[in-house]
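Project standup — Tuesday

K.O.: blocked on the structure for the chain from last sprint. Re-posting the sequence here as requested.
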Amino acid sequence: MINRVTELLNVRYPIIQAGMIWCSGWKLAHAACEADILGVIGAGSMYPDVLKSHIAKLQSATNKSFAVNVPLLYPNIEDVMDIIIKSKVKCVITSAGNPAIWTPKLKKEGIKVLHVIANTKFALKAESAGVDAIIAEGFEAGGHNGKEETTTLCLIPEIASKVQIPVIAAGGIASGKSMAAVMALGAEGVQIGSRFAACEESSAHDSFKQAIRNAQEGDTKLMLKDIVPVRLLRNKFFNDLEEVYNACKTKEEKIELLGRARAKQGMFNGDMDEGELEIGQVSSMISKPETVQDIVAEIILDYNTTVTQAAKHLL
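H.V.: unblocked you, prediction finished:
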């Protein structure tokens, strides 16, 4: 498969393993690279020195292309970008902030830049900032999400019709069928998170992985829209948070309940009661332990079968 995304990212398949906090360490990124997709280290949950170590380990393990995902609101953003540049990382995926601040600096260093957005307004701003491609993330996605609640099937054709650079679809994609659907709508690649979060190479806690596999339809919901929108799996903390909202508590009271390190507590340390469990709606489709290699092979086979069958139906 050859298109603008595979050529830009120097990968065989136009699939990006999402840079998920507490899940996307160097081991997951390495497995993704070896499966011929873009492996991603998620810097959002790493102190600068930890990120430096993960980059070094991945560079020692593979000579294939990989990226680092950087939330632009990260408190140590200057240190993080300095490490990325000095480590000669070739691709950065930015999110949660203004891409115009860092894109020119990164591109001056020969680094390719992709930016995550959730609406057309910010897609156009990202394109104007000079990013190489846009990752358009729909409402179905896990983790931090857009306030507009635009679904992936609505978001992709709208953005693809407005920008000239490649569009990569994210949110609700866990199979070759869903990949084929968004490609038909104008995407040239996909970013997949939840399925990789639950895989064997993910750095997430085994209890969190099992919670993902146990999830049923409707077990996730977009919460904290007045603070930082995030899709969460239902647990005790989720129920406590919902009670706070139902009681119309103040923003400050919500932040107090949220506290600090809730995501680490749940996703990395395995506290399934009090931790914040970030995952997408497709969690209900994930039911068994899998390796990255197995996931990619199944998605590509499913994609090719779907495209072939669709072509027959249209004749």
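K.O.: great, moving the ticket to review. The domain at 4-203+284-314 is CATH 3.20.20.70 (TIM Barrel). The longest helix spans residues 292-314.
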